[in-house]
Amino acid sequence: MKGYEKEFVYREKCKGGGVVIFYKKWLTSYTTVLNCCADSMIWLKIDKNVCLNGLDLYICAIYIPPDKNVFYRKYDIDVFDILQENIEHYSTLGTVAVIGDLNGRDKELINSISFIDYVNDSYICNRKSEDIKPPNSFGQRILQLCQSSGLRICNGRFGTDSGKITFNNKNGSSVIDYLLFTQSEMFKCLKSFYVEPFNMYSCHAPIVVELYLKGNNQSYGQCHCNKTKFNIFNWNEGSEDDIRSKLILNTQKFDDLLVNFDENSDIDTCVERLNNLLTDIYEQYTKSEVTYKEQCEFCENGDKVYKSNADKPWFTDECKTLYIQYQNALDSFNKYRSDENRINFNLSKQKYKCCETRLKRHYKNQRGNMLSSLRKKNPKRFYKNFKKT
Question: Per its UniProt record, what Gene3D superfamilies does this chain match (predicted)?
Fold first, then answer.
């Protein structure tokens, strides 16, 4: 990604999975990658010189695999215990934040832990969550972690959008992606926190966190076009009747102007009043706001990636129809997250993905057979299909 530095850790003992974190280049001199633990978490430090509370900020990007996952047989560790140890260590040095997929549900354990005598924070607002499912074992571990470390769950404490569900599949939907933050610094450091709508790229909804930072926050590698807004006036033929009705409704105002006009009146003042009255009436039907965009160097140099509107060769009319149905079902689910919309969304997704996989496989097999035949019949043309590196 242009304008960003990255740090990642992949699983050495399992296929797939891992954690990656991107941070803007202007933060490079203020950011230190501390360590990577259990192939599941990355700890980094943001220097106190850019934090408004004057404390170093220790951020953990984490993915905790689900309970009974093959990960635990391969690694033979308890990720929550390792996370607890790290939080205890970094909490003595500054502010701590944990963000990622914790695979735990804790809806019914928001304010209490049934097997621990736990006193709620009197000045921390209660959470409001869309998740109504009962808690699982990892949800209890999250609450234990918060109770012992002084971190608090931010989901549901920053407005309605922060309490939305973050995960959805054919089996159901729930909140399993969290932001945990040091209790005393939560509202000093966090500008906003919310869950974005679901998209077609993942079964997880993106969670967005904005921090209060100071310093040069220039966005390298991004658009910095200057945009200027101004008004234009266009006559609309279809508005004649509406304007005529509006003029009739304001007849009394025109009469008042005429009555107050005499030989002692200032002509400029009278004209200005008439002009203002007509402008107020006509602007409602002729005025529109436009934005003029002056391109920056980033746009002029063509660094932006423009998507082609051309369909892939395997993308048939059937696939296009299923894609539109999938997109419509996704929009409906994001607008109203009922069980009916969720089921319809996942069925539409499944149909489209199955069709997409089948068509891709067929196309690749077809291309493979063609290249295999070409290699035997016309080797020269065959090798032209491969670029030299």
Answer: Endonuclease/exonuclease/phosphatase (3.60.10.10)
**How large a percentage of the chain has pLDDT more than 90?**
27
Rounded distance, CA 17 to CA 199, Å?
20
Using CA atoms, how far apart are residues 339 and 37, in angstroms rounded to an integer?
38
Determine the pLDDT at residue 302: 46
Rounded to an integer, the average pLDDT of 191-202 is 91
Domain of residue 361, residue span: 317-380
Pair 47, 30: CB distance under 8 Å:
yes
Alpha carbons within 13 angstroms on the beta-carbon side of residue 346 total 14
Of the candidates 34, 36, 31, the residue with the CA atom closest to the CA atom of residue 51: 31
Neighbouring residues of 155: CB distance < 8 A, sequence distance ≥ 6:
127, 129, 162, 163, 166, 175, 178, 179, 193, 195
Q: In CATH, what number is assigned to the domain containing residue 150?
A: 3.60.10.10
Asked if residue 312 is part of any domain, the answer here is no
* Cα distance between residue 120 and residue 110, in whole Å: 10
Judgement on whether residues 89 and 152 belong to the same structural domain of the protein: yes
Query: Distance between CA atoms of 146 and 182, rounded to whole angstroms?
Result: 9
179 shares its domain with 235 = no
Note the helical H segments in the chain.
70-75, 79-91, 137-149, 186-189, 240-249, 251-259, 267-286, 297-300, 317-335, 339-377, 379-383
Q: Does a structural domain hold residue 356?
A: yes
Is 372 found in the same domain as 255? no
β-pairing, 172-174 with 95-101? unpaired
Total-model pTM: 0.69
Lowest mean pLDDT among 147-156, 201-210, 253-262: 253-262
Domain count, the chain: 3
Is 198 found in the same domain as 333? no
- Residue 331 resides in a domain: yes
